[in-house]
Design a protein that fits this description.
2% helix; lipopolysaccharide transport protein A fold
Length: 573
């Protein structure tokens, strides 16, 4: 084998001195070629001529080692380089220390990948084709085909396995020194089909590995993954014991990131000012962040708990619990801003939705306040449902429980049905709510002050095929669809609870204000009934008059002849 070495450096291990450099300013840098390996810019070599056990030193020393199998070239700078060679493998083992700088260039059909950076120590084994970097490793990875910009990573130790294609990188270290940042390249094609990929930051992992465009896996009890939508419209953070990235089979595009093991997450939808307009956090057994949709999408699985903050849409935090929650960030549509859509599926015992809509505006001057206002909504035992914060909600199951409690007015409502659907009159203000399918209901308005008088409590309870609550700017009503059987309680106006029945196709309508309600019935069947016993007061004393004998056939007291009607009945006041 042909070996070219400066004679003095080999035989006497004499360093180049400043004086010698001044005497020979035109001297070329030292270069050694040993097989396919090139060593240059060293100042001192000690060891055997065959490099079986040799030490090279110098602040600018450069070692270039090609790896034909992977199409890679490794360039190493270090203050001290220890070399061990065998007959079959020149520079088989290389160990470097002191200001290690490295550049690994790999040329592939897709393009060129470059890994470069610094470390305190490095080793390379030609037989196993393993590069090991340690003692505070900082790296930059450039891959124009798959990354929108160079990725950076930091760890206590990084290993590059050139025997794998693409190169397999393994990272390890304590939570304070592990850190990776990358931004996957946006998919090509038509503008409307392009995938918006988030800038990703993974930190505080104990160990991890990745092959660009194929696999990525990070473990550690404190592993943190942060995402930022490129348009600045959303951000997210996931903490878990394991974070894994998946890629598409074609073109190696990043498809999803999955976190498992005691997952904690925080997501935010950002406004134009960069502040969170809607944020949510909670826990789950698994969280998947989907990169392939036009907008960010999260899938939460296994005992999911969600807390939502959206000041423009709801009062205080909303709470969701389910076996699975899918969260889609919807794009802006005309004048409608972005929003989150939540799709829930669950076993009934694990299902919960609780939130407080914004309060409706106060009544116009001269108008009465409206009774039976919906307040904090609590929905349980559903099996599936969809919600858009401040826009709509729909939940269904074999027996859905739907409760409403309004602290300000004292209104309470309880429903048991097969489905509950709600829409909004305006941002955050419910305009309608419908319970359908074998509905059991109880609606209560407690006693309250109306002007200088005290209004007695009112209630209606019973069973119906469907109950529709509608509120507008000036009126509010509840419609009960037949078959219906109900009791109407109003101690101010009724001697005893009224009894109402309606056949299929008929409906009862209560039009509500704070001091009264109007009762009307639409009875196409002509077979529905309303039985009311009004409370009659004495004109002189403003007290109830004595009851006449209900057995007296000449009595004109309405109590003795309860009305049964197949047409609209009004006047229950």
């Amino acid at each position: 084998m042909h070996l070219r070495l400066p004679l003095l450096s080999l035989m006497f291990a004499l360093p180049l001195t400043p004086a010698l450099a001044q005497q020979k300013p035109a001297q070329k840098q030292n270069v050694v070629k040993f097989g396919d390996v090139t060593l240059s810019a060293y100042t001192r070599i000690e060891g055997n001529l065959n490099f079986s056990n040799t030490t090279v030193s110098g602040t600018r020393t450069l070692l270039v080692i090609p790896d034909k199998a992977s199409g890679s070239e490794l360039r190493l700078h270090a203050d001290t380089i220890g070399v061990k060679s065998t007959e079959d493998s020149p520079f088989e083992a290389t160990e470097m220390s002191g200001h290690v700088r490295y550049t690994l260039t790999q040329k592939t059909k897709e393009g060129t990948r470059i890994l470069e950076g610094t470390a305190g120590h490095a080793t390379f084994r030609r037989t196993t084709r393993l590069i090991e970097l340690s003692q505070g490793v900082d790296s930059t990875l450039t891959d124009a085909e798959r990354l929108a910009q160079p990725g950076t990573f930091r760890a206590g130790k990084i290993t590059a396995d050139l025997s794998k294609s693409p190169v397999l990188y393994t990272l390890s270290g304590n939570a304070s020194e592990t850190d990776i940042r990358f931004k996957p390249k946006e998919s090509s094609g038509k503008a409307e089909l392009k995938t918006e990929i988030a800038e990703t930051h993974i930190s505080r992992f104990r160990e991890g590995s990745f092959q660009v465009g194929q696999t990525a896996l990070f473990r550690g009890a404190e592993t943190v993954a942060d995402f930022l939508n490129p348009a600045g419209k959303s951000s997210g953070q996931i903490k878990a014991a394991l974070v894994e990235a998946k890629f598409t089979e074609t073109k190696s595009r990043l498809k999803s990131a999955t976190a498992t093991g005691n997952v904690r997450y925080r997501l935010s939808r950002l406004g134009e000012d960069g502040k969170a307009e809607e944020s949510l956090d909670g826990t789950a057994g698994e969280v998947v962040y989907d990169y392939l949709n036009q907008m960010p999408r999260y899938v939460l699985k296994d005992n999911v708990e969600v807390t939502v903050i959206s000041p423009k849409q709801i009062r205080g935090p909303a709470m969701f619990s389910a076996d699975r929650v899918e969260i889609d960030q919807l794009a802006e549509v005309k004048d409608k801003p972005q929003s989150y859509r939540y799709t829930l599926t669950s076993r009934p015992g694990n299902a919960l939705v609780s939130f407080t809509p914004l309060a409706p505006k106060p009544p116009l001057p001269g108008k009465s306040a409206l009774a039976f206002r919906l307040g904090t909504l609590t929905i349980k035992q559903f099996e599936k449902g969809t919600l858009e914060t401040g826009k709509s909600f729909s939940l269904s199951g074999k027996r859905v429980l739907f409760d409403s409690t309004d602290k300000e007015s004292g209104s309470e409502a309880k429903f048991s049905s097969e489905s509950v659907v709600g829409t909004y009159l305006e941002a955050g203000v419910i305009g309608s709510a419908t319970a359908s399918g074998n509905v059991e209901f109880s609606i209560n308005q407690p006693s309250r002050k109306v002007g200088i008088k005290t209004r007695a409590a009112q209630a209606i309870k019973g069973k119906s095929s469907r109950v529709l609550y509608v509120t507008g700017k000036e009126e509010r009503s509840i419609t009960f669809a037949g078959p219906l059987s109900a009791q109407l309680i109003d101690t101010d106006t009724l001697e005893k609870p009224g009894v109402i029945t309606a056949k299929s196709g008929d409906k009862l309508i209560l039009t509500l204000t704070d001091d009264s309600y109007d009762l009307s019935m639409d009875t196409p069947s002509e077979a529905s009934t309303v039985v009311l016993e009004p409370k009659i007061k004495s004109k002189k004393q403003d007290t109830p008059s004595p009851k006449p004998d209900v057995k007296n056939p000449t009595s004109t007291n309405p109590a003795s002849t309860p009305p049964t009607s197949t047409k609209t009945e009004k006047g229950a006041r």
